[in-house]
């Protein structure tokens, strides 16, 4: 059976040799470098203990330095499965999702035609290169010189020129006895609708040959010299040789450079690729007149696990990046992703190179951001989230994007990263609604994501504000207030400690009280840090909660909390994992906190209203506040098992009692 032209190339493109061989061997972890496609193992074809079997995943070949076995994926399947060549093709085609072609008696004839078309394309390359040296191409040469390309660069990239006129290339190829159908089939000319001779596709354009991964000329890209031309850049039409969605400009050389460790860069156009490669960024490619397709993305991942998409710093460049995100999300695999390097506004890589040099481009590439960050930027930039409805709309949009990811592990990690960014936006900024892409909680403030500091690294002591938005310590005016006593602070700290210890020992209760934890304004900074860690990891990653606490606050933080007397006596701490008991405990503790907070707020407001005179409404408010305070004290005195702040319990101390009495006397009110 003969296979149609291009079938085996497509099969080899879709099948990873390391995946095929990996089913039969165990990779040597010390010698192998999976990121570079360089893998070693004991040979599956002869018995040995050393790793002398080498797989070059990028080139698609294996070789054993012991028994000298060598071949590609098809050869490996033949040898290990003891099958024929066509049976090996069928096995791999089934794995790759390729339908086996039906028998085609004319396949050999078609292959011969593809070879002939490739030969015609080479003749066209030579013709255009010669035309660039003629008098008619002086303007084109001047343009290329202004773009920084000398003669050596023109030769390396085989740049040519298509002169103005309708049949220049046609006549040149016909003079070499090239058949009409081959010129038309190569996409170099089009038939006339007026019954005249076919005419050239490319006229008055600088010509860039497009070669496939094997180095065969398969198409051209032409840049118009006429500023009034409707198409600034024009690619060859799709032909038997050329499928623009399955090829990349500079594919072969970039693949070789990437194999040597060069960062794979995806630019937008031919001149960007040429400028980058000439500046030392040899592993640079570009899609061919379209946005990156899923097939091109697979080609990129065959060359590099994490290509860098170098975007023009304009609206069109950003739109292209956003479209690429939606296309790439369902295709993500472990270790396979994209990073995005955004050029300064109004510049492309070529502009930046000529204006500021290699260092400036390298700096932009070094700051390339992961795809999850650009996704966040798209969903939040320029938007204000100052209402529950707007926040809910953001949550819904992010959930829909995460659902596109097929790999469950990657989906989970995206959810965690986006939740962290959301936390920074909504909770890290305590002054009101979040503003996407701006301020201290917006996009791009901490490229590394959540970076807690341990006590050993300086901690967050003495009222220093944690970077994830812990509430500040009470203001001096609050601490000095008559109605915000030290004992009440102790009361609140005890409640906070019990709440945090209960949630840590029984994390399954956290989702039920997530809103309460968010609203809990901790007076103790260590408690604030613990609360934020609970909100971050307690719901999505409870198994990591204790480790994250130890990392962020030091190894003794949790032990110190659980060893407090009022915490150690709590039944929830002594019986961790009891969800019902934890739920009842948290409900009671939060109710106590909210009661004392409401009381203090009312008294503080009443105190501020005092201006030397009191009206009946203010007197009534103070009476109600005093009665509420007495109820809270009585309730607390009945709960000595879990609350002990000293010999005076939660009663008012002498200074506070005297001060409170003075306040009441000022307004002519005596508490019963």
TrEMBL record:
Zinc finger residue extent: CHC2-type: 43-67
Region of interest (Disordered), residue spans: 429-480
Domain of life (superkingdom): Bacteria
Class of enzymatic activity (EC top level): transferase
Cofactor binding comment, as recorded: Binds 1 zinc ion per monomer.
Similarity field: Belongs to the DnaG primase family.
PROSITE patterns: TOPRIM
HAMAP family, per the entry: DNA_primase_DnaG (MF_00974)
Domain notes from UniProt: Contains an N-terminal zinc-binding domain, a central core domain that contains the primase activity, and a C-terminal DnaB-binding domain.
Coiled coil: 596-623
Gly residues compositional bias, start-end: 434-447
Enzyme nomenclature, EC number: 2.7.7.101
Function: RNA polymerase that catalyzes the synthesis of short RNA molecules used as primers for DNA polymerase during DNA replication.
Obligatory cofactor(s): Zn(2+)
UniProt xrefs under InterPro entries: DNA_primase_core_N_sf, DNA_primase_DnaB-bd, DNA_primase_DnaG, DNA_primase_Znf_CHC2, DnaG_bac, DNAG_N, DnaG_primase, TOPRIM_DnaG_bac
Protein name as it appears in the record: DNA primase
Lineage: Bacteria, Pseudomonadati, Pseudomonadota, Alphaproteobacteria, Rhodobacterales
Pfam families: DnaB_bind, DNAG_N, Toprim_2, Zn_ribbon_DnaG
Chemical reaction(s) catalysed: ssDNA + n NTP = ssDNA/pppN(pN)n-1 hybrid + (n-1) diphosphate
SMART domains: TOPRIM, ZnF_CHCC
Record's subunit section: Monomer. Interacts with DnaB.
GN (gene name): dnaG
Keywords: Coiled coil, DNA replication, DNA-binding, DNA-directed RNA polymerase, Magnesium, Metal-binding, Nucleotidyltransferase, Primosome, Transcription, Transferase, Zinc, Zinc-finger
